[in-house]
Amino acid sequence: MRTRTVTSCTLTFLLLSGAAGCAPEGADATGQGGRSSGQGGAADQPAGLDGAQSPAEAWRLEDVRFDASDGISVLVLHDMEGLSGQDDWRTFDHEMPQYARGQELLAADVNAVVEGLFAGGATEVHVVDGHGSGNPEPDVRGDLLDARARQVFRDEPFDTYFDLPETSSYDAVAVVGMHSKTGSGGFAAHTFTLGIELRINGQPITETELVALSWGRAGVPVIFGSGDDRLAADLQTMPWIEFVTVKRATSASTAEPLQVEDARAALTEGARRAVENLASARVIKVSTPIRATLRAVPPANLTMLEGVPGLDYERGADDRGAVSFTTDDLRAAYDGLTALVGVATGGYTSVLREVLRTHPAGDSLIFAYGVAVMERWLDVESDRWQPDAEPTAAVPARHHGYR
Ligand SMILES: [Zn+2]
């Protein structure tokens, strides 16, 4: 999950129109997200405005080519929703007191996997944060991490999913503590951020598949994964990975974890087997041209884009709109999808509006916000306003991935 982003779209409309939010009239903010089909295929996807059809297969699989003579280097990319012993969403939210417990659970799972990777023959293990709790430090506490593993830091901000494959050389990737995709019914089920479904060539994907597609560009396989039983079902698309189910999801906010000692032993054993069987893993190569789709479910919303000429927009009965485009390049697809995520997450403000309506200070905050927007407009038109300068103090000298 990536850090929450709230924009002012809804309240701006509230101010200017007196009533409507970002969503058109009649679009309620409390609807439930639609369930995605488990195996979206190209055949049931309509052609886009440009007549583009998805390729017949979302991606193709290739054999691994790797050379173990210089050792085996493995990247561990972790999330924080699919942990052993975890059944409380507050453990993966940096703003919650339960986050400290989540950090302990995370370190224990990562260490169990690191142990297994080395036991299976890995000679180097790096760990990178794929979660984005908002913590300025990595979610894995350095003092808890297995001393043999090295955390990935860079001088510049980087995208955990897409920048590393372009600039790093690993033989394999192991993903730990992952969650199932939007609409799967899993614990904390989502893709990329709240209320978003990503489709590549018509196929709704998990973050694990997104990671595998990204590393597939560099010919590197994902060999290991862990999370709940719904993610295990999602990843039938990747039958070669050693997947360890650490809990059973009973809803998006409840789960029945396995005994943690058993789960961690299974993580170690699975990671060991994953390295031992590295040569029989598969690399995922996206099919081109790539049909990339972002579908929104509450609280995200893309319905504000409905009716824009030239935009390939669809709206199902039970969702908040979907926008598609076609490109030959996976990075371009990802960048385009993340730009659309920025639009869709503007829908989160529908929840802010609900909170303000019931808060004792809500009316005065809405009033103050309305005045501030008016003054901003008048100041900009009068050349009185300058954007805030980039903060110069407290800029982290190192970056660890998603924050
Ligand atoms: Zn995630």
Order of helices and strands: HEEHEEHEEEHEHEEHEEEEHHH
Q: Which range best describes the helical content: under 10%, 10-25%, 25-40%, 40-55%, 55-70% or over 70%?
A: 25-40%
Q: What's the total count of β strands?
A: 14
Termini Cα gap:
9 Å
Number of helices: 9
Low-confidence stretches: 2-46
CATH architecture of the domain at 59-285: 3-Layer(aba) Sandwich
**What are the distinct ligands in this entry?**
zinc ion
Main sheet: which strands, in order across?
4-3-2-5-8-9-10
- CATH classification class of the domain at 59-285: Alpha Beta
Strand portion, in percent? 15-25%
Instruction: Tell me the CATH superfamily of the domain at 59-285.
Output: Dipeptide transport protein
Write the layout of secondary structure elements.
Blueprint lengths: L8 H9 L41 E5 L9 E6 L20 H22 L3 E6 L20 E2 L11 H5 L4 E5 L19 E5 L2 E2 L2 H10 L5 E7 H6 L7 E8 L5 E3 L2 H17 L5 E5 L3 E7 L15 E3 L7 E6 L2 H15 L4 H10 L3 H20 L22
Parallel strand pairs: 2-3, 2-5, 3-4, 5-8, 8-9
Antiparallel strand pairs: 1-11, 6-7, 6-12, 9-10, 12-14, 13-14
Helix pairs in contact: 2-6, 8-9
Bound molecules: zinc ion.
The site of zinc ion has 4 residues, from loops.
